[in-house]
Amino acid sequence: MAKKDFLKTKFVNKLMLFNVFDIDEFVLNVIEDIKKGNNGLNAFEVSSAKRYSYELCRVGENEMQKDEISTEDYLYRKENFDDTMYFYSELNYIDFEKEFPTEELYQWYGNEWLYDVHYNKYFFPEVKKWINVAEGDGSKKIRIRDIFNLLRRSNFALKNIETNWNEIKPIHEIQKAVIDIHINFTDLMIESIIKYYNYIFPNFLEIEKENEKEDKEDKKDKKLPIKRHSDYFKDNFYISFKIYTEKHIIEQYVDYSYLFQRMKFEKMIYEIKHKEFAKWLLENKFINEKTMEKINESGFRSLNKSESGQRMNNFNNLFGI
């Protein structure tokens, strides 16, 4: 099997998850198996599960309209447009989360799935077969590196998905279960490849083992997790926040004071301290050092002291109030 063909087969692609869309596709596949009775899970009522994709369109100076689009259109936009802020895709977890067998999922995709299915029968044997049929040590090393890097990319993406700025929605408990399952899978396969081929190409794989060691040391050195916008903004209010900042911020201190206090009042953001939110604004280049110093000294202004007719109108129009 050609290198390109193997890495891009449905068999490999279903196991390599990189983002929330991939995670949701795995959930949909599980749901299809539940409906067909293929995966040993009980017959849970999850027929309401569905993917919805949307495009946000500007319909006025301060107004946005959400239009449903097909999954194919969403994937096309994601592939061909740099700014993903104006379209997104999600599952309707709220409609089926109570009926979804999350605990059973952990059991079904546990050690039996990892070791009996993919280590002994399917994924790892197929990887070894694909590598071993390559002609010459050079070609074998290329294939080892390619599959190794693919696994590491998936592993890294899943472990850091909550800090990925391209992922707007907070991570749902069902999605977290899928993430855990696939991190366990990629961890096992990375370790297995290193151990198996270490005896054949010890010098070559020493580099990869060093990379693994550095990754573990980097994790130990991390003091605090990087905050992403879904840690602060509920639902998709970050999108409206971003548009507001692009259109209506003139005096940073007072304008951001109003925006912060108003979103807090409307329960569009989670409970957060002034200085923590200001630090996030600074790190993401919404405010400058001078504004940050002012907030450190006095905090944001109250809603009453920062409100004006213009700010209120701008907010109401953009946020649809």
SSE order, one letter for each helix or strand: HHHEEHEHHHHHHHHHHHHH
Instruction: Report the biggest beta sheet as strand number plus sense, adding barrel if it closes.
Output: 3 strands, antiparallel
Overall number of strands: 3
Instruction: Specify the number of helices.
Output: 17
Average pLDDT, all residues? 82
Structural class of the helices, strands and pairings?
mainly alpha
What percentage of amino acids are in beta strands? Answer: 5-15%
* Poorly predicted spans: 218-226
The gyration radius over C-alpha positions equals 24 Å
What level of helicity do the residues show?
A: 55-70%
User: Outline, from the CA principal axes?
Assistant: elongated
* N-end to C-end Cα span: 58 Å
If strands are numbered along the chain, what order do they take across the biggest sheet?
2-1-3
Number of domain modules: 2
Topology (elements, then pairings):
Elements: H1 3-7, H2 10-13, H3 20-36, E1 51-60, E2 63-69, H4 71-80, E3 87-91, H5 93-96, H6 102-108, H7 111-119, H8 123-132, H9 136-159, H10 173-198, H11 202-221, H12 237-248, H13 252-265, H14 274-283, H15 289-298, H16 303-306, H17 309-319
Antiparallel strand pairs: 1-2, 1-3
